[in-house]
């Protein structure tokens, strides 16, 4: 007889949320985690520590440049990096311990060790001391997440040539920071070190930053970051990084080929994406199929090619986002308990936690154009918003894209202070299939930044009040 109804491998946002939901629904559940603490990439070396440093560095920047215009005179702020890093570590500790507490509270067996699938129903666990045991369960969930994508020929030492993990741990502010990849990690962590004093150069292979982001937003955002001092080399690739004296020499060349050039750096951050983590899981032997990009192949119910083995989160297809992993965890636990679980992949918000923030949900203009959908656009800028003016946060805009015939909202893109909070009213509206008229007729409190969302919705019919 199986020891457990469900065993989850990995306790990141996908795994721990799936386990908690399953336990709440009455399944006898265990989680296997090889890291010392729970919470996965997100809580240990991802979302949470990066947001702690983003916030702290933003406050540092604000105290240095933002207060004066408000009539607050302070002496030039001094950086105490050690204390800033302690703040980050305290935040991590509180969060990972919180997950440990929740697992216990829900009577989930937390097994420390590395899981390897022997066959459907059987997982071998290797503890830190090398001892092995076997866990049996009716169902197995692979929630092993993702790992840093390496840049061929460039060895990450996490001191001078770092991934996001090393970039969250630097002991001093680099004089020159070269970021390889103008994606989410590169721009968030580049912003952190830029605000703390680094000269930041972002080298991006494509001709725009933030790849799939609506081009209008991406262009505006790049302009804003440039004003903040970030230098961009677009349509350019890094082909090598060599140690030279105490520093580094980075070789770059045009993405389409051409003459190479070198730039100097004290630290290089490699942020060119992440890859699904399936190492040592025994998937091949167990017969679990992968797709062409090394992700675990699943059907619409998260089932892999083997009955009784499921997968969720970064290790399967879809955006590598914590909330996507969490929602898949809930949906799968519900399905395994005989309920109807569902994730609406058309309404998964994405936020870049820079200053200003960039947030979007649904389709970009480019996606609508290439799908041949006829749409109308409503745009409203924050410099016409009273609250934004009062707070000196007038950069950016809200853009609402709605179906030209039905008026149904298909995408909302916001660049501005607090965009990551504002996006959710659009997400709720879209989840219920709402129209831009619905959004424009919903009473919004005054004065709030969110009024710009209402006005952008009204602008799809050409009738905003304040512009
Ligand atoms: P993970 O969080 O990667 O967890 C997988 C866990 O499985 C790990 O703890 C790992 O140790 C464990 N594991 C792996 N193999 C085994 C094994 N064989 N046995 C036992 N345990 C195993 N997303 C957002 O939505 N918002 C953000 O702001 C954000 N910021 C980020 C910042 C950075 C710097 C990074 C790197 C990522 C960020 N992400 C963010 C992405 C987010 O971290 C991931 O999408 C999320 O963690 C995926 O969750 P997961 O449960 O699929 O996997
Ligand atoms: P990314 O996929 O967002 O961006 C990588 C960028 O690197 C792309 O623009 C790509 O064109 C570029 N690139 C690839 N090879 C290159 C080369 N050789 N030279 C120059 N540029 C190159 O990946 P990133 O930023 O590493 O983030 C990984 C994942 O983590 C993302 O999928 C994201 O979803 C998640 N994440 C989410 C955050 C959030 O939600 N706020 C924050 C941080 C990470």
From TrEMBL:
SUPFAM superfamilies: FAD/NAD(P)-binding domain, FAD/NAD-linked reductases, dimerisation (C-terminal) domain. Its cofactor is FAD. Its EC number is 1.8.1.4. Pfam families: Pyr_redox_2, Pyr_redox_dim. Keywords: Disulfide bond, FAD, Flavoprotein, NAD, Nucleotide-binding, Oxidoreductase, Redox-active center. It catalyses: N(6)-[(R)-dihydrolipoyl]-L-lysyl-[protein] + NAD(+) = N(6)-[(R)-lipoyl]-L-lysyl-[protein] + NADH + H(+). InterPro entries: Class-I_Pyr_Nuc-Dis_Oxidored (IPR050151), FAD/NAD-bd_sf (IPR036188), FAD/NAD-binding_dom (IPR023753), FAD/NAD-linked_Rdtase_dimer_sf (IPR016156), Lipoamide_DH (IPR006258), Pyr_nuc-diS_OxRdtase (IPR001100), Pyr_nucl-diS_OxRdtase_dimer (IPR004099), Pyr_OxRdtase_I_AS (IPR012999). GO terms for biological process: 2-oxoglutarate metabolic process. NAD(+) binds at residues 181-188, 204, 273. Residues 348-457 form the Pyridine nucleotide-disulphide oxidoreductase dimerisation domain. The active site is at residue 446. FAD binds at residues 51, 115, 144-146, 314, 320-323. It is an enzyme of class 1 (oxidoreductase). Binds 1 FAD per subunit. Residues 4-329 form the FAD/NAD(P)-binding domain. GO terms for molecular function: dihydrolipoyl dehydrogenase (NADH) activity; flavin adenine dinucleotide binding. One of its GO terms (cellular component) is cytoplasm. Disulfide bonds join 42-47. PANTHER family: DIHYDROLIPOYL DEHYDROGENASE, MITOCHONDRIAL, DISULFIDE OXIDOREDUCTASE. Belongs to the class-I pyridine nucleotide-disulfide oxidoreductase family. The active site is a redox-active disulfide bond. This is Dihydrolipoyl dehydrogenase. It comes from Roseibium limicola.
């Amino acid at each position: 007889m199986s020891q457990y109804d469900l065993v989850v491998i990995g306790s990141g946002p996908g795994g721990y949320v799936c386990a908690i939901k399953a336990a709440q629904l009455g399944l006898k559940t265990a989680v296997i985690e090889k890291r010392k603490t729970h919470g996965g990439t997100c809580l240990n070396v991802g979302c949470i520590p990066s947001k702690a440093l983003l916030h702290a560095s933003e406050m540092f920047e604000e105290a240095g440049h933002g207060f004066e215009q408000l009539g607050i005179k302070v002496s030039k702020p001094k950086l105490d990096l050690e204390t800033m890093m302690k703040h980050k570590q305290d935040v991590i500790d509180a969060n990972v311990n919180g997950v440990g507490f929740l697992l216990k509270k829900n009577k989930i067996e937390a097994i420390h060790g590395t899981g390897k699938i022997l066959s459907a129903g059987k997982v071998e666990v290797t503890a830190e001391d090398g001892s092995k045991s076997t866990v049996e369960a009716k169902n197995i969930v692979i929630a092993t997440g993702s790992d840093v994508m390496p840049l061929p020929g460039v060895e990450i030492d996490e001191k001078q040539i770092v991934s996001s993990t090393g970039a969250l741990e630097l002991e001093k502010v680099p004089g020159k920071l070269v970021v390889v990849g103008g994606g989410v990690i590169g721009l968030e962590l580049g912003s952190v070190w830029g605000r703390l004093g680094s000269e930041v150069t972002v080298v991006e292979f494509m001709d725009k930053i933030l790849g799939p982001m609506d081009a209008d937003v991406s262009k505006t955002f790049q302009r804003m970051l440039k004003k903040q001092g970030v230098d961009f080399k677009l349509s350019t690739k890094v082909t090598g990084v060599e140690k030279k004296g105490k520093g580094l020499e980075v070789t770059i060349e045009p993405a389409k080929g051409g003459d190479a050039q070198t730039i100097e750096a004290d630290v290089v951050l490699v942020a060119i994406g992440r890859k699904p983590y399936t190492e040592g899981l025994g998937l091949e032997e167990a017969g679990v199929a992968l797709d062409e990009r090394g992700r675990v192949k699943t059907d619409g119910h998260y089932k892999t090619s083997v009955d009784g083995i499921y997968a969720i989160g970064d290790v399967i297809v879809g955006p590598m986002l914590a909330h996507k992993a969490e929602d898949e965890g809930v949906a799968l636990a519900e399905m395994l308990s005989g309920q109807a679980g569902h994730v609406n992949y058309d309404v998964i918000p994405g936020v870049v936690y820079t200053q200003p923030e960039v947030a979007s949900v649904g389709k970009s203009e480019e996606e609508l154009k290439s799908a041949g959908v006829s749409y109308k656009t409503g745009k409203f800028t924050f410099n016409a918003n009273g609250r934004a003016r009062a707070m000196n946060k007038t950069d950016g805009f809200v853009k609402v894209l709605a179906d030209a015939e039905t008026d149904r909202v298909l995408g909302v893109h916001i660049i501005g202070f607090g965009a990551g909070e504002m996006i959710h009213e659009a997400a709720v509206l879209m989840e219920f299939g709402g129209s831009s008229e619905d959004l424009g007729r919903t009473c919004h409190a005054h004065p709030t930044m969110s009024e710009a969302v209402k006005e952008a919705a009204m602008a799809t019919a050409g009738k905003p009040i304040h512009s």
